[in-house]
Amino acid sequence: MCKNHGIAYKGTGEVELMEIDYPKLALGDRKCEHGVILKIVASNICGSDQHMVRGRTTAEKGLILGHEITGEVIECGRDVEFIKKGDMVSVPFNVACGRCVNCKKGLTNICLNVNGDRPGGAYGYVDMGGWIGGQAEYVMIPYADFNLLKFPDKDQAMEKILDLTMLTDIFPTGFHGAVMAGVTAGSVVYIAGAGPVGLACASSCQLLGAAVVIVGDMNKARLAHARSFGCETIDLTNGIPVEEQIAMIVGIPEVDCFVDCVGFEANGHGASAGEEMPAIVLNQAMAITKAGGSIGIPGLYVTEDPGAKEEAAKQGSLKIRFGLGWAKSHSFHTGQTPTMKYNRQLMNAILHDKVDIAKAVNAEVISLQDAPRGYEEFDTGVAKKFVIDPHGMIAS
């Protein structure tokens, strides 16, 4: 029997590579004949993982992390019909049954059958159904025929693997935020946050034909990387109000579309610099988005935040100026991304050289053994997206 190793959350600020069970085609005590076992080719570290590692969720110690999974099928259950052994596939981070009313409507982010506590499931994530994560050597994927996106050619896939591994989450999430914000040809867009999701969103806005893509952050290295592929940037540490900086770029202090790629671990700037302000991005969105505009919110907000400074925020209750959004007839679009809504089209964009998403997010390959260092470095705010290569398949 092959051994398996994975990255486990061990407590606030700590992850560890440990030996774990080799996956079985099973769900508890019953066989999972609709599942497959993957040899993992790439599994990425996500900012959402960092929320757990920082102790900002109710994640339990021992959770095997990793929801961004790309791999090769090495075993198929009896009922798997269209996915074959040897296929190279992308795994949507959403675990979805394909049978419930939400899945049938394309809302695979809120599947009703994969999580006993609430709608929606995900690999290696707190409160998302207990599915074992994919920052490992091998993993089991259920409902394989429905969930998996097969790459047309394995050799071509390996040539573009750094781009294709972004299809599991970060690229569709950035693209979803842009689509939900109404980005189209000629749009002026503001993206809050120059982390990997914000950079993926910026690249998505360019793909969608936006005229001006503005990215705001306090991290100078990340802003410099955003400029490297054609974005305008706003440095939130310079003391100039965001509205004024936008006016310096486009002539007026507002934008057509706003995308929140920060989420609940937001900090103030200007007079509030260094102060944790979980609602600041949402309030900023309503202030600078034009009347009738849309606000996409792929940034993560949680129902429980044990590390919050305010008691209300610990229960996910934030102080937002909703009356302003109502007065300006804003549309708000929240929630996890239904990855399958976008991943096939975005795969084609990658395979036909329409986008360089790995370059946009500055992907860097590391080994599974080096993943704890990747977590530590990522937490410092480096302008990188770490791609874990468990079997040395990318480096070779």
Automatic annotation (TrEMBL):
DNA damage is among the record's keywords: no
Species this chain originates from: Gillisia hiemivivida
GO MF, one example: formaldehyde dehydrogenase (NAD+) activity
The EC number(s) this enzyme carries: 1.2.1.46
Cofactor: Zn(2+)
Protein's UniProt keywords contain Transmembrane: no
Name assigned to this protein: Formaldehyde dehydrogenase, glutathione-independent
Enzyme class per UniProt: oxidoreductase
Family designation: Belongs to the zinc-containing alcohol dehydrogenase family.
Pfam families registered for this protein in UniProt: ADH_N
Keywords: Metal-binding, NAD, Oxidoreductase, Zinc
InterPro entries given in the database record: ADH-like_N, ADH_Zn_CS, GroES-like_sf, HCHO_DH_non_GSH, NAD(P)-bd_dom_sf
Domain Alcohol dehydrogenase-like N-terminal residue range list: 34-151
Cited CDD domains: PFDH_like
